Amino acid sequence: VAMSAITLESVRGGCLDAGMNDHVGKPFDLAYLVEVILRYTGDAAASVVSPLETAGATELGLDADTALNDMAGDRELYASALQAYLEELRDLPDQLDRLLAAGDFATACRSLHTLKGTSTTVGALHMERVATAAELQLKEGEASLDHLALAGAIRDAARETVKAMQQILVTLTSEPV
User: Torsion angle, CA of 145/150/152/158, rounded to 10 degrees?
Assistant: First the structure.
């Protein structure tokens, strides 16, 4: 099974023409990847897990249920990924401030790009959208961009996301499996 960040049908077709059984795009949905692998190994498909009870998650731009399903319902794995994400997210605004002040726009773009992917993985969709917009702004207008405003937007979204995701982490670790 081929995996790439490019999900164009021509890439998929090229992978199949090269002898691959299937193609999965990134960021990948773990449940779908498992389903594809099981399809070619002859085993039954994985099931979808029951939703987490996360009040207000939609309004906060969170999708913990999809993230948990993408991790094949493994609450321990999701809790671990979420904890690591929160630790990185707490440090990111200060790191971004330093990078922008130093004029290191390439590293700042890479940090924002990574943040997009990890935010999607844990279901922090608002943070993913903010990181996407910030990365685009930085790429399009490095010299003329208001770096303080960009860093402030990331800082505000990170603060909101950390607060909301901490609630999900508490819910996740306190609910019976």
Answer: -170
